[in-house]
Amino acid sequence: MAEQTFSITLQRRLDDGVQWGLRHWLLLVNSGAILYAGLPWLSPLATASGHPLIGEFLFRIYKPLCHQLPERSFFVCGHQVAFCHRCVAMYSAVVVAGLLFGRLRGRIGPMSLKSGGLLLLPILIDGLTHMVDDLSGLGFRGGGDAIGTLNFWLRMITGALVGIAVLLAVYPRVERDLRGAVDTITR
């Protein structure tokens, strides 16, 4: 009998936890996005403040996820941020999109997936042309990579478009679908 009561209590707690997660999905996603977008900035700060192992650890975490080319990265306190300009723009835009969606929730419906895909097309073209240019050495993406150059601004703008796509095409869909899931579970 006690075992069955424990099992029912555990099941209720799990159900309550799942329902809470479904209702507060944006809090969870925004927290993860802020953490993911913020940690790379701690790498140079840790190194500059006398904690080089922590700085190197944070830098290495992002190595499989970003090329980390120094000429395409920000520097803080003389040390490289753990991801490139494009990643900074992209993940910062996702954070801003999540915060904006929290304020605009219920007032924006999902943009068509086709339109969302079109917003992602510029970053695909920009990234592919950079990759081809880097691998071939043709130099057709000349003009430099420094802050303020055309290439820098292309990275920033195309990264921001990712955030706009998330705000208009992804988050409203997730909200609609998870609201439906919560309604189904609570019946």
Which structural category fits the helices and strands? mainly alpha
| N- to C-terminal distance | 27 Å
Major pleated sheet: 2 strands, antiparallel
Helices, by number, come to 6
The number of strands is: 2
Low-confidence stretches: none
Overall geometric form: globular
In short:
The chain is mainly alpha-helical. It has helices spanning 2-23, 25-48, 52-61, 85-104, 113-136, 150-186, and strands at residues 73-76, 79-84.
Written description of the protein model:
This protein is mainly alpha-helical and 187 residues long. It has one domain. The protein has 6 helices and 2 strands. The chain has helices at 2-23, 25-48, 52-61, 85-104, 113-136, 150-186, and strands at residues 73-76, 79-84. Strands 1-2 form a two-stranded antiparallel ribbon. The longest helix is centred in the C-terminal third of the chain and has 37 residues, at 150-186. The protein is globular and about 70 Å long.
